[in-house]
Amino acid sequence: MNYGIYHDIQGEVELREELAKYLLASRNVICKSEQIILTSGFTDSLFLLSTILKKFTEKIAIESPSYKTARKVFELANFKIEDILINQNGLDLSLLQRISSKALYLTPSHQFPTGVTIPISNRIKILNWAKENDVFILEDDYDSELSYYNRPIPSMQGLDSFGNVIYLGTFSKALSPALRISYIVLPTKLLEIYKKTFDFIFSQVSIDIQKTLTLFLKDGHWERHLRKIRNINRKKHNLMKESLKKFLCDDVKILREGSGLNLLIKPLIDINLEKLEKIAQQKNVKIYFKEFFNLEKVIALGFGGFEEFEIENAIKTFSEIWIEAKNN
Fold first, then answer.
1. In terms of Cα–Cα distance, which of 95, 125, 94, 133 is closest to 108?
2. Is the bond leading into 267 cis (omega within 30 degrees of zero)?
3. What is the pLDDT of residues 252-263, one digit of tens each?
4. Of the N and C termini of the chain, which has fewer Cβ atoms inside 10 Å?
């Protein structure tokens, strides 16, 4: 028995081949298996890409508001951040000509945290701008599997004929965060740089997990699993929406729905959000605040961790906290 065998630096070839087939069918990501790199999570993907992108730029443009974990990784990698505001159509295209970054981080199919989707016409404009200005686009497609009403718009990578889009995906949202498996689809023109830069690192994803996941995809279990969790989370999503209407009716407006694992709500009344959070903490209820357009503070209510039968009571408890904060 040879204990000195090292496995492929980018991940098992068979798994990457199955992943390439799946991405083409589900997201119109056009790639070969040699363009795929398996990583041990989203931050691992971003740290790897940060090292590659530092060869081209010291700056990176990011959506505002944005995914704070992504921003933190780029800050730790000593990138100068250029913010681009989000509007109802996603990225504010009028601001693109003002930036000098050679890299742009986007969540175009389900913008985090606003939930906005960039329409195809705007995606093409962004791709043309990237081509004209030699910009690499990091397309974070973090939860495309969790769409409950409509199929998400196909990836920007599939529209890119210039090789400027770096596609990022993960199994964490739809399968299990504990597995820590994400992946990068690199443009062909970056592959040589990646191989020269990371010739000393081997895939940190367990070989047993890789082999199991390969069979999971190949035998159709992944597709069946996705149908099952979409159905389960669609029911939870609708239960939370109905419960909000039942208990808080005219007090709140639902800003984001139809995908992901939470709803964003905005108060329609004058309420002290700091007091709301303080009362919630006293009652051992965790409330998450997110930034919306113009950096307005809104509330994210997650349903992923609840069983269906728990959701109505959870919203009832939240409404009692809401009423107490409103009346103080």
1. 125
2. no
3. 988 877 777 888
4. N
